[in-house]
Each structure stands twice: as structure tokens, then as C-alpha cells.
Amino acid sequence: MTHDGNKAEDKILTTIQQEYKILAEYKMIEAEKIGGIYVIPSFGNSLLWYGVLFVRQGFYAEGVFRFNMLLPDKYPDDNTVPTVIFQNEIYHPLICPFTGTMDLSHAFPQWRCGEDHIWQLLKYMQYIFNEPLDCVRLANITKWLNTEAFELISQNRAGFITKVKDCVNCSKEHVYDKPPTDDPHYITFDEYNEEVHGPIKQRIREGKDPMPGSTATGPKGLSWVKPEHKDEKAVAASDANQVTSNEGVEEPPLFPGKRPNYGTNNTLELLEKIPSKVVETKLDDVLKAVKDVDNLCDYTRCKAKTNLIGHTCEYCQGRYCFKHGLPEVHGCGEAAKNGERKRFLHPKPAKTIKQEEELAKAKKKLNAKLKDMQVARMQKTPGGKSDVASKTSKKKPNKT
Fold this sequence. Notes:
Helices cover 42% and strands 7% of the residues. It is an alpha+beta fold.
């Protein structure tokens, strides 16, 4: 029963970690401000995303193409590339005319965890529609999903443009179709109504809030992220810098008032922060105080523990809970954005990536060996012999 319970806990923890990473991907897309493309995860399944692409230039200009994006079950730790399936009939060399599947093999031969992101995939999607000629010329592909479209764009440009225009007109006819699913996150559009949309349109042009008088404070978007308390405001994708309220929660007895943001894991520095009256008491209390502070989230006013579930920021080296682990939430948003852009513009060579993977495996193997040696030392008796050796020595010698 205990084994089954541990399995269930591990499964829940894995799911939480995965959805946290998906939330981070969603926030990266918002930070990039990719114009003309809209995506949102499904209400019931964070691995299924709905999207709509508005093409604003090139042969496919004025096209409105719906697509679904399926993330692998172990995303992002799996090297499997997400699958993009268009719901419209699209005439393009990189899109299968029968299934609507988009070929991503040229840009993403395999998915590199921590280096490849969904916002990059979306920008590549925009690129193949805005610049289909460059896409065909530069792509190192021997087998095209739509061979007819490839041959037409290479040999008969006018014929290709005619086919594309028919595709664009067809997509515009289905913009207001009824959704094929009852998922509340499926993106739908209403026909323009001057009475309803006119005032909103005018306020947007004037740079004002399109929905005046809105007092909604509940979670926005990302339905699978639930607030912990009724009075808390969830950190939504549209408001990453919103501070979650923890008023009414009792402070730890050793630290009356607002808990300082120590922002360090150094035990000596933590010990200096503890009140002197605590240090004068028993040593066990001091050690417990240091441990409590060291295991708390470094975000100001947050009481969440990070010893079991936590995230160390690669930019500020602070230790944060899942709620405040995103760089955009705890103040490292600009550093994260610059870092991702640098990695995208200057990717590491395949040889360097392979060396880093081998080094990580060697470190993991060394840590496992050190742990086994530590366990072996702990099992030894005070005399220096292990428990097995001491039991063997107590046996009577065999009579000859």
C-alpha cells in the first residue's frame, strides 16, 4: 500500500512539474509579443493547444488558418518535436494535403530541452507562410509533404499563386464556423457588430482599456492553474508581475513580522540574520531556524517550502517555489528574455552539446557512486567493520 502511495505521489509531482514548464512556455510566448498568431492550451489537457494564424504579407496574405498543436506526453524532457496539424485545407509544400500535418524537420530535427521553445516554433510557422520561396530554396528536404505544391512553386509561379489564393479565400469563408468541440478555450470569432464592437474598437484606437469597469480578479487564462486560497489572486499569463497576497497567514514564531528576503543559501549568512535571542537558546533551535529559513521560498512574503518541490533560478541563483519560480514573476524576466534570445541567435554547436551531455552523465554517475560509498560508511560498526563483517566474526569456527 505504501509503495502504491509513493507511486501516486511521484506521478502527481511529475504532472505538476510538467505543467509548470508548460506555463513557462506560455509566458515566453506572451513576452515575445508575436503578432498575428494566437494560441491557448486546452481547458482539460495542457498538452493540446488551439491556435489561429493571421497571415499579413506574401502570397498567403489575409489567410486565417486554424491549427492544433500536440505536445509529447513527456514534454519538454522528450526529444520528440511537437506536432502541428492545420484544420484548413492549405496548399503549401511543407503541409500534407491529406492530414494537414506541418513538416518541422528542417527547423527542429529533434527537440532540445531548454534550448528549443514553442515561441520559436510559432515564428518558424509564420516564416514558411510569409516567405515560402526562401523556405523552399533553403530547406534541405528530399521528400516534400506536398510534392505538387513544391513543383508548382519551382516551375510555375503564377499557377502556384492561383492555388494559394483559392486556399486563402476558402479559409476566410470558415472563420465564423461553429467550434467542433465544446472546449471553452477553443478560439472562436463573432461577426462584426457596430453596436457591440464599435465602442471597444474606438477605445483601443485611443489607447484606453477596451473593457472599462472590469473588476475581475480571478485567474485569467491557464485554467489548470488554480489559486491556493479563495482570496488569492492567481498569477495569470496576462499579468506576470502581480503579487500574490498572503495576508492573514501566521508568521513563523522565530521571525515575527514580515520575513526578510534573504536570497542566499549560505548557512553562515543565514545564521547572522537570526535574532540573537534565538541563538542564545538551545543549539537544536538554532539549527532548526536555519533549516526553516533555508527551505523557504526566496520570494518576499512567500511561506512555501522548497526542500521537496522548488526551482533554482539560473540568473539570480535564488530558490523559489513553483508559484514564483518563473523569472518573470520574481524579477528576472528581462535577464531570461535576453538569455533566450542569445541562445536562439547563437546556438551551441552539436559537438559542444554532446560534450555537455556526456559531462552531465559523468557527474550523475559520480554522485551515485559517492552516495553508495556514504551509505556503506554509515552501515559500518564503531569498530570499523561493517554489520555483515561483524556478524561473520561472531560465528563459531568449523570443527575439523
